[in-house]
Amino acid sequence: MSMIERIRTHRDATRRARAIEHALRSANSPAVREEILAIAQRHMS
Fold first, then answer.
1. Where are the domains of the chain?
2. Residue 26 has pLDDT above 90, yes or no
3. Alpha-carbon separation of residue 9 from 14, 26, 27, 42 (angstroms)
């Protein structure tokens, strides 16, 4: 893996993590938070 690919992968992972955190903060009920976490885990694995 080249340095550029590594940087791009890291940047994408950081962007996804920030989006998930934002969604969790915006979620107004525990059920919505659980759903967001379930979706996030599906995409991470």
1. 3-44
2. yes
3. 9, 26, 27, 18
